Fold:
Amino acid sequence: MNTLSTLAPTLVPYSVAICLVAGLAMSVAVRRPPSRLWPVLLLYQLFVLLYIVGDLVTRVSTEMWVEELGILFIYSGSLPGAVACWILTLRYAEAQGRPFPWAHSGWTRIPILAGAVAWVAAATNPWHGQFVTPVMGAHNVHHWMWWLAVPFGYAMVVGSLMLHGILAWTSNDSLVRRNATLMAGGLGVTVAFSGLGYLTSHSLPFDPTVLGLGGASAIFLYGAYRTQLFSLLPLAVVEATRHDPSGLILVDLDGTWLRSNPAAVKMLGPELKQPGFDVVSLIAGRFRGCDGEPMSRDDLARRLLQAPRARQEVVGPLWAGDAHWVEITATPIPRSEGRARAVSLRLQDVSARQAVEEQLRRARQELTNEAGERRQVDALLGDILRDVGRACAAAEDSERVRGLLQRVRRAAEQARVLSGAVVPKH
Structure:
């Protein structure tokens, strides 16, 4: 009991932080974020979790091998976690449709390589001793490898914080600014408490960095469920969207791509998934109006992006070639206060419906033509009957002529009855 009461000031902060970090990790694993953030967002949380566990091990260790194991966990979480944080920041900007123009593949590959080298230096410390000298109950003694590796990790995190700040400063979308500010705030809390940990030495029963990491996860959880920080959707919704035969595209109010499902990519091509891509221009170039004429990008943008802000708008059917027709339904995605912040485009194949409607149109036209012909026949038969009647009246002296005309009259009357059975006389 005394041991538990002694360890309580240490265990409580770590337990809270572990619950927050693990909770966010499970949310990310179950409710998939956009493909740009998967799986780096989950890896980042797992690395943070490994760091917290390692720090807890060093706090409660009573033997040197346990201390060294905790140190291995710490740097196996912190060094890769810093690289994951950097990559997550670049991917997050891409997912928001605001990629940094200089952020090419080298800006992810080089940090990954440098982080791997730094981790190897930390993991092999028990053999060469040039990274740290473990000290139980106090700060470890840092050596030259530590001074090369750890500042690199801090540079990754501080750089990520600055990039989120730039994203928040330069974006015109209030939701993007808000979420970028949340991301920067979470990283800022982590850096601030980490610096506090070095200032307080071991005067506290826990590492303040753990509070910062737990606080950051709390901020991220708040953003994930209140402002769609990571666009976390229930797995059932993600799977339903993925397997929906209609193309689904989410665009911002400028028509820039945010996310889409495989059916949309199949309809419009792989270039659709490029961050910052103008979806409206792609649609205008891919389809034609019902009259077969090319569509104006500006007119299409007005119908798909401006009109749906107050209601749902249906555009089409649009001709896609080879008897292929598509109908686009634009639906506003409102903010919490009710104003649209994005537009959902559903591209539905209506080729079968158009084929049926065309068959019905042709059938109606054929019936109309046939009805007209039968009316003409009916009119001619009427003329014959009138003429026969006049001939009968004029041929009263000739029984033979009268008999022949009577036969003609009966035949015309029978033909008129048959004609009127299909198209009644008006």
In short: Confidence is low (pLDDT under 50) at residues 421-426. The beta strands are 132-133, 141-142, 247-251, 257-260, 313-321, 324-334, 340-349.
